[in-house]
Structure formats: structure tokens, C-alpha cells
């Protein structure tokens, strides 16, 4: 029995080491959120068992919990590099796949057709607005900047306001609002499904996305020219790494001790 109990401990420590290593590897990844391993003990009892003689059977991994605390903000100066100063996720739709995903990484760019995307053709979603920047529909659409305005003047610049308005400037000096950045929130963000590249998708655990405008209600305002860095605390992760290593060594030692005891019993002579 002790072999399997310690073997479970080894597997759990290995999982913990993997999670911590993943955190450390992404300490420089924009919009990354760290995770931690949650454990619980295993106890098996029957109605006839004496509770004073109950022996545990080790531990198991119950969850790898995501931590959505805000990461530090880095000023970059890019017009389409945006950080959220509070709660909320940017919403993107794959240009080819049509899949909806959510992210805290606001590093966007514009392609030759005026589409605002993340570099992988996942397009930023915005609420349609009128010329004054008032939202005209609560159904998000892909952000696209017209390369010429109504008078035929060419596009020259873009800015993003704190309230989420994307402002396109043209050669004749006019500025048009082409949409307002749509932010998403979830009843249980820890239930979001990780898909890589600092992207998440909704799941049954997270609930459906609730859309809103930057700076309104629970949604944070936007900071143009900034990016949210990883929220990994490297000092905390290194301490956790040492602890997980010690746990692994202790369980390995327990297996070694059980092996020696078994060998002693086998070698008994009558």
C-alpha cells in the first residue's frame, strides 16, 4: 500500500513541478496568467470502519487553478498596443476559423486591408458606433479601419481612447470613430479554457461571456500605448519550485524505505 501512496505523491509533485515550470517559462509573456496546483487527500472508509483506525491513501490533484490578478503595465508607445486598467478581456474572432477567443494581451496591429488583429489574423471585436462614438449595436463586429474616408482622403493614423473608441485620422484632418472596443467578463473566469498564446475560450465552467464597454460598470478603462505583462511572481515561483522538489524527494525516499523493509522481510530466515 505504501508503494502506491508514495507513487501518487511522486505524480502529484511532478504535476506541481510542471505547472511551476510553465509559469516561470512565461514570465515575459504579455497577458499570461499564472496557475497553481490544488491537492486533496484520499481517504477510503466503509460503514463498518473504525474512524480511529482510518489510514489515508495519499493525495490527488483536484485542480490546476488559474490566477487572474492583474499583471504590471508596461508602457510601449504603440497606438494599437492596449492594456485594460481593470477587469475584462479583449474579444477576438479567428479570421479563418471564426472561433471566438478572449485575451488580456492587447498587442494588436493593422493589416493592408485595415483589419485590426493580433498578428495571427484573430480580429479584435468592437461595438459599431455612430460618428460621435455612441454605440449603435451591442453585437460586436470585427474592427476594420477604412483606408480612405468619405471624401477620399487617405488614412494616416489611429488612436484608442480610454473609453474604447478607435479613432482613425485622415489626411484632410478629419477623425472618424470606427468602433468601440468590446470587453468581455465571465461569472467564473477560472473556468475559462486555455488555448495558448494568452488566449482563452468560454466553457461550461466559466459561463457565457457578458459584453460591455471600457470604463463602464465592472470593466476597466483602456490604456493606449501600454501592455499588461505576465502576473507571474518569479520569487514566489522559485520558492514553490524548491518545495515541489522537496516533496518529490520525500516521496521517492518513502518508496526507497518501503523497498528496504520489503527486502528485509523477504530475507528473513526461520
From TrEMBL:
Its main location: other. PANTHER family: FLAGELLAR HOOK PROTEIN FLGE (PTHR30435:SF1), FLAGELLAR PROTEIN (PTHR30435). The keyword rRNA-binding does not apply. This is Flagellar hook protein FlgE. GO terms for biological process: bacterial-type flagellum-dependent swarming motility. Residues 223-268 form the Flagellar basal-body/hook protein C-terminal domain. Residues 83-168 form the Flagellar hook protein FlgE/F/G-like D1 domain. A flexible structure which links the flagellar filament to the drive apparatus in the basal body. It comes from Aurantiacibacter xanthus. It comes from the Bacteria. Transmembrane segments: none annotated. One of its GO terms (cellular component) is bacterial-type flagellum basal body. Residues 3-33 form the Flagellar basal body rod protein N-terminal domain. It is found in: Bacterial flagellum basal body. The keyword Zinc does not apply. Coiled coil: none annotated. Belongs to the flagella basal body rod proteins family. Signal peptide: none annotated. Keywords: Bacterial flagellum, Cell projection, Cilium, Flagellum.
Amino acid at each position: 500500500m505504501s508503494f502506491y501512496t508514495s507513487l501518487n505523491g511522486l505524480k502529484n509533485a511532478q504535476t506541481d513541478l510542471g505547472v511551476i515550470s510553465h509559469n516561470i517559462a512565461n514570465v515575459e509573456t504579455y497577458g499570461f496568467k499564472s496557475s497553481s496546483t490544488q491537492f486533496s487527500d484520499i481517504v477510503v472508509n466503509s460503514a463498518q470502519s473504525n474512524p480511529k483506525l482510518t489510514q489515508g491513501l495519499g493525495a490527488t490533484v483536484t485542480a490546476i487553478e488559474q490566477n487572474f490578478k492583474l499583471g504590471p503595465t508596461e508602457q510601449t508607445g504603440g497606438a494599437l498596443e492596449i492594456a485594460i486598467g481593470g477587469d475584462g478581456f479583449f474579444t477576438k474572432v479567428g479570421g479563418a476559423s471564426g472561433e471566438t477567443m478572449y485575451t488580456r494581451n492587447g498587442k494588436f496591429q493593422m493589416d493592408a486591408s485595415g483589419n485590426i488583429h493580433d498578428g495571427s489574423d484573430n480580429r479584435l471585436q468592437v461595438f459599431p458606433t455612430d460618428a460621435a462614438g455612441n454605440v449603435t449595436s451591442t453585437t460586436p463586429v470585427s474592427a476594420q479601419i477604412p483606408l480612405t474616408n468619405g471624401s477620399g482622403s487617405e488614412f494616416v493614423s489611429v488612436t484608442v481612447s480610454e473609453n474604447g473608441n478607435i479613432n482613425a485620422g485622415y489626411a484632410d484632418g478629419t477623425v472618424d470613430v470606427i468602433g468601440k472596443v468590446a470587453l468581455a467578463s465571465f461569472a467564473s473566469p477560472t473556468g475559462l479554457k486555455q488555448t495558448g498564446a494568452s488566449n482563452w475560450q468560454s466553457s461550461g465552467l466559466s459561463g457565457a461571456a457578458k459584453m460591455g464597454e471600457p470604463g463602464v460598470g465592472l470593466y476597466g478603462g483602456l490604456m493606449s500605448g501600454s501592455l499588461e505583462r505576465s502576473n507571474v511572481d518569479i520569487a514566489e515561483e522559485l520558492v514553490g519550485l524548491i518545495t515541489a522538489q522537496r516533496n518529490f524527494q520525500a516521496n521517492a525516499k518513502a518508496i526507497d524505505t518501503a523497498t528496504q523493509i520489503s527486502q528485509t522481510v523477504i530475507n528473513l530466515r526461520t
